[in-house]
Structure formats: structure tokens, C-alpha cells
UniProtKB/TrEMBL annotation:
This is Maltose/maltodextrin import ATP-binding protein MalK. It comes from the Bacteria. The keyword Repeat does not apply. Its EC number is 3.6.3.19. One of its GO terms (molecular function) is ATP binding. It comes from Acidithrix ferrooxidans. GO terms for cellular component: ATP-binding cassette (ABC) transporter complex, substrate-binding subunit-containing. PROSITE patterns: ABC_TRANSPORTER_1, ABC_TRANSPORTER_2. Residues 2-232 form the ABC transporter domain. The gene is malK. The lineage of its organism: Bacteria, Bacillati, Actinomycetota, Acidimicrobiia, Acidimicrobiales. Keywords: ATP-binding, Cell membrane, Hydrolase, Membrane, Nucleotide-binding, Translocase, Transport.
């Protein structure tokens, strides 16, 4: 558990980790996700005891760890650059830490063999790191952290040195490993694909603070603010500032956006106010009807992505034009310069405060709205 955990460098330095609070369950896989420089590594290093904390506290269970040296915290750490001893064999790399903590030679050998077996590295046991592939080296680094039977597993971008295929393979292995061993894991990455697939919960960080802690699905569906909305998803959520007003049987936001009158309940108290309207690129469609939100824009660029066409289009906002992205089916034929209408379900729209960017109250599901209006 992290309580008001803070780190600043220098005397009057600004906090690079700024009073974060986080409770982690036993056996949970938590991913710290955020852009470069947001404080992920610093947070992990404080938990590992490699970095002195400026204020706040770190607890494992009920035990305050603040002043417990790193080598007595029983954490296993895996770094981005493996940091294997080049002159030692795979076996020695794994045994070294155990031996230096006083494990007998026989016991160390048994435990190392066990871990090598588990990671399918037994055949590589006598090799030096330079005689291994990147993926094998990364497995040795995992093994070295595992062999000490840590109660907490800390990983800092462990896959970022691997090529795309290997990264995916290792990601699956890490997922399986966690599934079988159930060790509490804190995993740092700026790759949201890794975060969304591995995490029980994702912690989105920005500028030394936590923006949202939630299950991957919730982070994706209900981002806590416009930063998280933009950061999650590839590409992130489309956002535009609008002021929605009732106009006949529609609700309009400038020239480009219109919603059915029925969506009034979805829009709720955000009517006649400046808000940020958000919609995910994958939830925009070329087909729709009068029950859908309609967004009109001019196509600027079409990128062939294999399974879809990533289509960039310009919509007219209240003050200036805005760029939106839609993922369209590969057999559609959007043409540059063409003006098209895109549709979205009103329940897929998200609203954020125009100033703070904070998500505005959770939307009612449109089906629920319809049912209610039938009754009422
Ligand atoms: N020893 C140090 N002295 C001063 N500032 C530091 C030091 N170490 C890190 N920082 C600053 O702290 C901030 C957070 O760094 P940190 O390494 O935790 O970021 P990160 O989220 O891990 O980024 P990345 O994704 O690039 O690894 C950065 O602005 C960095 O410049
Ligand atoms: Mg880092």
C-alpha cells in the first residue's frame, strides 16, 4: 500500500511523484501506465527500496517498509535492460543472489534448476548471456527475480528491448507465470497494449500523480478525465469542445454534431454548457439512423491499416475546425475531400468538463433512457 508517497529531487525540487495513494491486493497484477517522465520508474524504485522516499509511506501488509533496506523487502525486480552479469553463466546469474544471501550451495542449485525448468531454460544453463537471444536473456532476468521467491514482483518495462513478436510472446509468458504463481506484481510500462492485456487493474499516471485506477475495461469505457481518454486507445478518444443546444427534434453542437432529441437524458445537465464531447474512433460508423448521434466532417486522409481504414476528418467546431479519427471497415471507400456523415450511439458519447477535463457524471444507458421514457 502506498500512502501519500512523494519524491522530489534537490532541496526545493518539484515532486516527480506527488503524494500518490494506492492499495494493492495480495496476488494482484497492477500496471503503472503513463507517458515518459510521469514518475513510474521512480515509484517502482521507491517500492523496491532503491530510492529514498521524500515523504509518505510504503506498507507491505501492515508493515511500514520506509526504512527497511531493499535487500530485506523480499521483492524481485526485473529491469528493461536485463542487467545480467556478462561473465557468469545462466545458472550462476540465478544462483548468485541466493548464495550471497546465505542459501547453501545444494539448496541454491535445487531452486535454480526448478526455476530454469519452469522458464524452459534448462538447456541454456551453462551459457553466458551473450550466447542467448533477447527473449532468452529476458527470461533469465525473470528467473533471477523469481528464484528468490519474492512476495512482490516489480517489473520496469521488461519487454521494451524486444522486437514486436518476441514482446507479444513474452507478454503471454508473463501473464501465464502470474496466473500460475499468483505473486503480487507491479508492472511498469508505457505500452497500453501490455497494460490492457496483463493488468487486473491499471494505474494511469501523469506528472507524478495518479489520474485513474480501474480495471482495463473501465479505464477504456469510462476514462476519469480527458487525459486518460486521449492516452488510452490507439488512437485515443476524439475530443471536441461543444455547446449542445436543443433545436426542433434534434440537439445540435455547432454545424457538425447533432443528436436525437431523445438523447436529452444522456446529455442531461450538459445542455447549453461548454463541454468536451468524446467519442472513440472505433465507435464511429458509416451507417446509422435518426436515433444515432450524427457527426459530419470532411475527409482529410485515409490510412490503410489492414483490418480497417484509419480515416482522418475535419469537423467544424464552434470556434475552429477539429480533427477526428474514425476506424472504418476495409471495404469502405472514403475519398479525400468528401464530406461524410458518421454515426455513433448516444450512449457511446462521453462528456468532460471543458476546463478541468474531468469526466462529467456517468451517463445513463440509452436503452434505460428509452425504457424510462416509455414508462413516464
Ligand atoms: N536522479 C534524478 N534527479 C533528478 N530528477 C530525476 C532523477 N531521476 C528521475 N528524475 C525525474 O523524475 C521524473 C520521473 O522520472 P521517471 O524515471 O520516474 O519517469 P518514468 O515515468 O519512468 O518515464 P519513462 O517512461 O521515460 O521511463 C522525470 O522528470 C525525471 O527527469
Ligand atoms: Mg521509467
Amino acid at each position: 500500500m502506498l500512502e501519500s508517497l512523494t519524491k522530489s529531487y534537490g532541496k526545493a525540487g518539484t515532486a516527480v511523484v506527488d503524494g500518490i495513494n494506492l492499495e494493492i491486493e495480495n496476488g494482484e497484477f497492477v500496471v503503472l501506465l503513463g507517458p515518459s517522465g510521469c514518475g513510474k520508474t521512480t515509484t517502482l524504485r521507491m517500492i523496491a527500496g532503491l530510492e529514498k522516499i521524500t515523504s509518505g509511506s510504503i506498507k507491505f501488509g501492515d508493515k511500514v517498509m520506509n526504512d527497511i533496506p531493499g535487500d530485506r523487502r523480499n521483492v524481485g525486480m526485473v529491469f528493461q535492460n536485463y542487467a545480467l552479469y556478462p561473465h557468469m553463466s545462466v545458472f550462476e546469474n540465478l544462483a548468485f543472489g541466493l548464495r550471497s544471501r546465505g542459501t547453501t550451495k545444494v539448496e541454491a542449485a535445487i531452486r535454480v534448476d526448478e526455476v530454469l525448468e519452469m522458464l524452459e531454460l534448462s538447456a541454456m544453463k551453462r551459457r553466458k548471456p551473450r550466447e542467448l537471444s533477447g527473449g532468452q536473456r529476458q527470461r533469465v532476468a525473470l528467473g533471477r527475480a523469481l528464484v528468490g521467491r519474492p512476495s512482490v514482483f516489480l517489473m520496469d518495462e521488461p519487454l521494451s528491448n524486444l522486437d514486436a513478436n518476441l514482446r507479444e510472446q513474452m507478454r503471454i509468458e508473463i501473464g501465464k507465470l502470474h496466473h500460475s504463481l499468483g505473486i503480487t506484481t507491479i508492472y511498469v510500462t508505457h505500452d497500453q497494449g501490455e497494460a490492457l492485456t496483463l493488468a487486473d487493474r491499471i494505474v494511469v499516471m501523469h506528472n507524478g500523480t495518479i489520474k485513474q485506477v480501474a480495471k482495463p475495461r473501465e479505464i477504456y469505457n469510462s476514462p476519469a478525465d480527458s487525459f486518460v481518454a486521449k492516452f488510452i486507445g490507439s488512437p485515443g478518444m476524439n475530443l471536441t469542445e461543444v455547446e449542445l443546444r436543443t433545436d426542433g427534434d434534434r440537439i445540435r453542437g455547432g454545424e457538425a454534431i447533432s443528436l436525437p432529441r431523445e438523447a436529452a437524458r444522456v446529455v442531461g445537465s450538459h445542455l447549453n454548457k461548454k463541454v468536451l464531447l468524446g467519442i472513440r474512433p472505433e465507435l464511429l460508423s458509416l451507417v446509422g439512423d435518426e436515433n444515432d448521434a450524427k457527426i459530419v466532417g470532411e475527409i482529410q486522409l485515409v490510412e490503410q491499416m489492414g483490418s480497417q481504414l484509419q480515416t482522418y476528418f475535419k469537423i467544424e467546431g464552434p470556434s475552429s475546425s477539429q480533427n477526428f479519427i474514425a476506424k472504418l471497415p476495409p471495404d469502405s471507400t472514403p475519398r479525400i475531400g468528401e464530406k461524410i456523415a458518421l454515426f455513433a450511439r448516444p450512449s457511446d458519447l462521453r462528456f468532460f468538463d471543458a476546463l478541468s477535463g474531468n469526466a462529467l457524471d456517468r451517463l445513463l444507458d440509452i436503452d434505460e433512457v428509452k425504457a424510462e421514457s416509455l414508462v413516464g
